[in-house]
Amino acid sequence: MSCSDNGSGIEELADLRVVDLPHKTDSHLKRGRFGRGFKVGLCITEQARVASGHQPLEFLRDNGERISDQAFLPVAVNGTQVHMQMPCPAEIAA
Predict the structure, then answer these.
(1) What is the pLDDT at residue 58?
(2) Which helix (H) or strand (E) holds 41?
(3) Sequence-separated (6 or more) residues with CB below 8 Å from residue 64
(4) Whether pLDDT at 3 is above 70
């Protein structure tokens, strides 16, 4: 599953590792509600990648353990891009 937007992006991708973001204010001018929707999907993904600005953040599995890896993108991404590999049966994915 992939989605992207052309919004202001995510200031700090490391915040996606936190279950609840008490410092994020709820506003009709911003997308998402404290990052909860993303985290619900992340619970069932095989792996995920989020990119915003010069930041990519990957959520992977290493020998059954969930890990995350953050790096730097030489070319900035406008808005936010999310790619999630979901565990779907073959007949649904086809």
Answers:
(1) 95
(2) helix 36-42
(3) none
(4) yes
